[in-house]
Design a protein that fits this description.
The complex is a heterodimer of chains A (about 400) and B (about 575). Chain A is an alpha+beta fold. Helix content of chain A is about 30%, strand content about 35%. The longest helix of chain B has about 35 residues. The radius of gyration of chain B is 27 Å and the shape is globular. The chains are: A alpha+beta (about 400), B mainly alpha (about 575). At the A-B interface, helix 2, helix 3, helix 5, strand 14 and strand 17 of A face helix 17 and helix 18 of B.
């Protein structure tokens, strides 16, 4: 027991707390300015949910001013969070003494521990996705707009489609080389991979750009790469695109343009068998479906400023005997089957709705934590304040 | 304290109250007339712009502020009210075109319109008319690249183009929407709108409201004084019958705009600041008589200023139907407002006088910041759907803003402590003991408010889009403030720092708070960003550098601190 205490003493030091908090502030600052160039989720993963992060000096200096080489090795958010957690825990174990005077601080710090746990649970287990539904249609899958997949669909069975998917990161890693094997009925040569792209219409694209694809919609529209959506640009969604040559053995089946921006599927004939192909955001299918009955988007009179969005949907889950209408609007989400549906955005011309779908087993923790910290701090500072007032008035 | 010093604070307070009384009196009836017609009722006529129903007076003021940086304009060297300017734009466009209301600062833009006199900053439509094509061409060139990449000239010329377009829209009566919904099923509409049946043609609205409004303009432009006053009375009566709540609010808003409570408060804070400084200077000469007298006078003036600022905040809450903090402008007003009672509470505890100086300084400085933020127009603009919830605005936004306020207050008290203590003898004695306690107390409060406010923000985010914490720049800024306050508290509890160290770190807290408040908006964008700011980058940098220099003062060894030396 004494050995454990001896081990915990240095871990319980207030100096360590101050150092860890200082490092955290710097990490948060770096993770904020890094968002000028990078997407917020990339930053979250590499800065705040990592063990270690290499911070480029460049992020602190605008590229216009100077090019700065070099990196600063730094502990990641996970490391700092875990250390803070144990620092706090050790401090209370070593100095634990229950008294009315200390009750406030104990409650507060227990709340902080819970907050750290909550963020860890969110980082490890929370899943976010989008559900895009056109008016009058229904959807039974959630799209993860942070990753994409190349879906090859064999629709020859009248009852069920057979879908073979190639994850987007494999496509990205294979840029310039071939993807084949598995159940893939052809070889895909990735001629160009664009993490984020812009589409050029028939009038905007040059003949050379349109000539890059030899078949499919790529002969009508062209894609050009653009910088990935950065964190400070708002929650932008990347639209990946690729020029891919499909080959069967030594014969070319044509060069295709695939992009998540067009929902049209393109087909290819391999040895007399037809496959539909599309680059789409990664899908997770659900046993229930959501049908959009009506989407409303009200604006303030005479402006484009949104006043309210709402989606009237029909939720159907035959296995659970659920079939009901729900109105989802800003700040009024629907919670169902462990998932929460938020009104997030809308399709162009208000033709459909975009719901953000979140599954976060730790969603309740911040609520409890916030209450504990607030009560604890009010108790602690309140008793001190009351004592000062008494002295002053005495 | 005997004799005149005893009565001095009372005299100051009475003077200030009398001054305010007359300002309030004037704002109820300004007595402005144009073409022999009283503007009183016409200023209250409601219009709709930016999605908000507001009196014509407010629209005219906001537009003039955007175009020229002032709420009034000049006719032959005489300042005239904004409402007269907008009436002239409609009734006498050729005279309106000669009014110098377009502010241009960039010398290259001036040279485009052929002006060589660099001292002039305001120009008329007529002066620019021959160069309109060139301005449009330059603006279109500039607009082809994003706002972020534009150089100062390109931004300036785009801004000018925007101002000219705005003026043209107003002159053509396409904006604001002046046709009020008098009958059921009607909506606010412009008097002149594109004709849906014929391309390129316009159509004049023919509702009852449109006819009544037009009658005012026609009689005004022909100089028919009697007819115009009749027309105004007729329209007002009709509006009162159908839109009574809007009319009541409008009448109040006109009074509010004339009173300019935040401007009045800022002058009073300045006065209080000067009185406080006199108190400090009097300390060595007349420590028993004039020192407390000046300090009391300062507190009295602060109390009046605070009352007016409170009235202004409450008035905005009434007019907007929203909690007090809805945008960057109102956050500046609110931060100062929240600091003042905190500082006065500290003053009550410590009686050192210096906290009243800090209170008046912060009150003044934040209102100056607010004034500069109001240049973009209507400070009571409508809110994006996701922000449109009174509950979270009232809890998260207000509490987190109080947290910012307290962090700033601690930082400013620390500045007074460090500079006053190290460089002057003014703080010798009780003040040197009391101020560190105040700094510490305020930081405790700041830690509480900023933590609770930030977590409430997370809960709001969880309610709205299912993400408690998204690591977006504004959230990160708030987290940095919380962490900074915690560092100060834990370092002090651990004995790592004492009075001087707490003060130095509290000053650094100003840098972090300024970063979170403004710097994160300058990065560009995100859900929380309120608008683009250019010149503010420079101001922010200068502020941060000044704070670091002040921090350096704290590192002077205590043996050299003048207020700690025995005389």
């Amino acid at each position: 027991m004494n050995a454990l205490l001896a081990l915990m003493k240095p871990l319980a030091s207030l100096k360590l707390t101050v150092v860890l908090l200082s490092l955290s502030i710097f990490l948060i600052l770096a993770g904020t300015v890094a968002q000028v160039d990078q997407g917020v989720w990339l930053v979250v993963d590499s800065y705040f949910r990592s063990i270690y992060v290499a911070i480029p000096f460049q992020i602190f200096v605008p590229r216009k001013v100077a090019e700065v080489p070099g990196i600063l090795p730094f502990p990641g958010g996970l490391t700092l969070g875990v250390l803070l957690f144990f620092n706090l825990l050790a401090a209370h174990l070593v100095r634990f003494k229950l008294s009315w005077k200390r009750a406030g601080m104990i409650t507060t710090h227990a709340g902080v521990l819970l907050l750290l746990v909550g963020e860890f649970v969110t980082g490890a287990f929370a899943k976010e996705g989008n559900m895009t539904i056109a008016e009058g249609e229904s959807t039974n899958y959630i799209e993860d707009t942070r990753s994409c997949e190349l879906a090859v669909i064999d629709a020859s069975d009248a009852k069920e489609d057979l879908v073979i998917v190639v994850p987007g990161r494999i496509l990205a890693d294979s840029a310039g080389s071939d993807v084949s094997g598995g159940e893939l009925p052809f070889t895909a040569r990735i001629l160009e991979w664009m993490p984020n792209s812009r589409l050029l219409g028939p009038m905007q694209a040059s003949p050379a750009q349109l000539a890059r694809a030899t078949t499919g919609f790529g002969t009508q529209v062209a894609a050009v790469p653009v910088a990935v959506a950065s964190g400070v640009d708002g929650a932008g969604i990347d639209a990946p695109a690729a020029y891919v040559e499909l080959r069967s053995g030594e014969t070319s089946l044509g060069i295709y343009l695939f992009t998540t921006q067009l929902r049209t599927v393109q087909s290819v004939d391999v040895g007399g068998k037809r496959y539909d192909i599309a680059l789409r955001y990664e899908r997770r299918y659900r046993p229930y479906s959501v049908k959009l009955i009506d989407f409303r988007h009200d604006r303030f009179v005479g402006t484009e400023v949104a006043r309210n969005f709402s989606s009237l949907v029909r939720l159907s889950d035959p296995a659970q005997n659920v079939d009901r209408e729900v109105l989802i609007s800003m700040n009024n989400p629907l919670r169902y089957a462990g998932e929460t549906f938020y009104q997030a955005s809308f399709a162009p011309d208000d033709s459909g709705t975009v719901l953000q779908v979140v599954r976060n087993p730790g969603w309740l923790l911040p609520y409890i934590s916030c209450t504990m910290v607030t009560v604890g701090l009010l108790w602690h500072f309140g008793t001190h304040m009351a004592a000062s007032f008494r002295r002053k008035l005495a | 304290m005997k004799g005149f010093p005893r009565y001095f604070p009372i005299i100051v307070a009475l003077c200030v109250l009398a001054f305010m009384g007359s300002a309030i009196g004037r704002s109820f009836n300004a007595g402005d007339r144009a073409r022999g017609i009283s503007l009183e009722e016409i200023e209250r006529i409601p219009v709709s712009a930016g999605g908000r129903t507001k009196p014509l007076d407010t629209f005219a003021r906001n537009t003039l502020v955007r175009l020229s940086g002032r709420q009034t304009y000049e006719v032959d060297g005489v300042r005239r009210p904004a409402a007269e300017w907008i009436l002239e734009a409609w009734a006498d466009p050729s005279a309106s075109a000669t009014r110098q209301v377009f502010r241009i600062d960039h010398p290259d833009v001036k040279s485009i319109i052929g002006v060589t006199d660099t001292s002039r900053t305001r120009f008329s439509w007529k002066e620019m008319e021959p160069k309109l094509d060139e301005i449009v061409r330059q603006a279109e060139l500039a607009q082809q690249i994003g706002r972020k990449q534009q150089d100062p000239f390109q931004r300036a010329v785009s801004d000018l183009y925007g101002k000219l377009a705005e003026y043209a829209e107003i002159r053509a009566l396409r904006t604001p929407y002046v046709v009020a919904p008098l009958a059921a099923g009607e909506e606010w509409a412009p008097l002149v709108a594109p004709d849906p049946t014929e391309r390129g043609k316009t159509r004049i609205s023919d509702t009852e409201s449109a006819r009544l409004f037009q009658a005012i303009l026609v009689t005004y432009s022909t100089g028919d004084t009697v007819g115009c006053e009749k027309a105004i009375a007729a329209y007002s009566a009709r509006l009162n019958a159908s839109l009574a709540p809007d009319m009541q609010k409008g009448a109040f808003e006109v009074v509010f705009s004339r009173l300019e409570p935040f401007y009045q408060a800022s002058t009073l804070y300045m006065l209080a600041f000067l009185l406080g400084c006199l108190g400090l200077l009097a300390a060595p000469i007349s420590p028993e008589r004039w020192k407390p007298s000046f300090f009391r006078a300062a507190v009295a003036v602060i109390a009046v200023a605070f009352a007016i600022q409170t009235f202004g905040l409450v008035a905005r809450v009434y007019l907007q139907g929203r909690p007090p903090v809805t945008n960057l402008y109102s956050s500046a007003v609110f931060i100062g407002w929240a600091c003042v009672p905190l500082a006065l509470l500290g003053e009550w505890f410590s009686r050192v006088g210096i906290l009243s100086i800090a209170a008046s300084f912060i009150g003044f400085a934040t209102l100056i910041v607010a004034h500069n933020l109001s240049a973009s127009g209507d400070t009571m603009e409508m809110m994006q759907a996701v922000l449109d919830t009174n509950f979270w605005l009232a809890t998260h936004v207000v509490i987190v803003t109080i947290g910012y306020s307290a962090t700033f207050l601690a930082g400013f008290i620390a500045i007074f402590y460090v500079v006053g203590g190290a460089c002057t003898r003014l703080l010798a004695g009780d003040a040197m003991k009391a101020l560190p306690k105040m700094i510490y107390g305020v930081i405790c409060f700041a830690a509480l408010a900023s933590f609770v406010g930030t977590v409430l923000g997370g809960i709001w985010a969880d309610q709205s889009w299912g993400r408690f914490w998204g690591w977006d720049p504004k959230e990160n800024g708030a987290a940095m403030i919380v962490a900074w306050n915690l560092i100060i508290l834990h370092a002090r509890w651990g004995g790592m720092i004492r009075e001087r160290g707490v003060a130095a770190l509290a000053i650094a807290g100003n840098v972090i708070t300024a970063w979170s408040w403004f710097g994160t908006n300058m990065l560009g964008v995100g859900l929380h960003s309120y608008g683009f700011m250019d010149s503010a980058v420079f101001v922010l940098t200068a502020f941060c550098v000044s704070q670091l220099l002040l921090m350096a003062v704290a590192f002077i060894p205590t043996a050299k601190w003048k207020s700690l030396q025995t005389a």
